[in-house]
Amino acid sequence: MSFAELGLMPELLTALDAVGYTSPTPIQREAIPIVLSGRDLLAAAQTGTGKTAGFTLPLLQRLATTPVLHPAPKHRIRALVLTPTRELASQVEESVKQYGQKLKLTSMVIFGGVNINPQRDRLQRKLDILVATPGRLLDHVGQGNVDLGGVEILVLDEADRMLDMGFIRDIKRVLALLPKQRQNLLFSATFAPEIKTFAQNLLDNPAKVEVAPQVTTAERVEQRIYPVDRDAKKALLQQLIVDGNWNQVLVFTRTKHGANRLAEQLDKDGIPAMAIHSNKSQSAREKALGAFKAGKLRVLVATDIAARGIDIDALPHVVNYELPNVPEDYVHRIGRTGRAGAGGEAVSLVCVDEHKLLADIERTIRQKLERVIVPGFEPDPNARPEPLRKPQAARQPRRDFPPRSAQGHGGQGHNAQAPRSAGSQRDGQPRSAGSAAAGNRPQRDGGRDTGNRSRPAGSGQRRRPSGNV
User: What is the pLDDT of residues 429-450, one digit of tens each?
Assistant: First the structure.
């Protein structure tokens, strides 16, 4: 099947030809006709399956070929895409621009960690498609910079991750500002129970698409385990990189501090490396990612949240320097390689502390991973495990999610204030009421905003998040 057979317009086909895409992926074959028909959609697709094009292409066509659904005296945003992280938001907006280059539609991306004022100025001009992280979007709503009353299409990308990160309340506030009559598209890695509950209250008789079994790993990714003592991990990683002549390696750690320390040690030992995590400024993250994509940086050390949205063509190697606390995150991590039909290698350095985490991962993916002992790095059979830092408690979705009939109408979108509860998060940064001194307050979403923003009374101060972000 070709993209033309899916019913895409010539302008989009030309853009696809320009980037060399000739055949749709399974998620694109399933999702594009549904979105073009105007139906709500609940889709389960892992990263690297082409899901971004699966919703951006038909979204662009619907906006280009249908009249404005919610006309107003001033131009309103017609499509809103919410993502959990800055990197994913930037990636989605790049796709919108790339595929929509022949269409007279405008788009922009907004996220925290950068100056809010240029975003505010751009929001005052004609805008059809807005890609945003929830926290910064609500900043603009609170300042009256954006009107959501004209949204015709809402996309929630990586909805499972947004729920995991505690964005449920932020999303509910955004939904209350949207018109009831709209198309909703929800994409998630799996149809986990909390996603099904969330979808029941958001989607209207949706079509369901699932292109892969739940929690599967990429078939083209070669996976193996290297048992090693905890204190020998860095030396083993260096040997693997040097002896294997690995020139582009994405390495995962559990904590931001661990990412910084490992990157500094590798760089000091002559292996160019940088860290990327939520405490880094947006400019630092873009610099590191740009150097890594360009081949100027050999190793990029990342935490799980920071790595969401990293899309690198033909990334050959992913290393789990530390196993994740949540088995599903293992799937997301190794999904950075083996993308778009290319092969890839995912290795994990596992010490005695992580044997239970490894058992959980193998049980989840229903696969026994190959063990490889490297001479000189044989683990001590008498080593005793040390307790790992407890993972941050997952936030459960609330069951009192407002039904579609109770959601607000578009007229309240422009000037509506969106107060925040103390338990919500900001683009990956948790909040907690009154639990930290002002001087111990972390930067929000990787960098303090320079624009003016009023904080509602009683919202409390932010507590420094635990290291697993």
Answer: 433 333 333 333 333 343 333 3
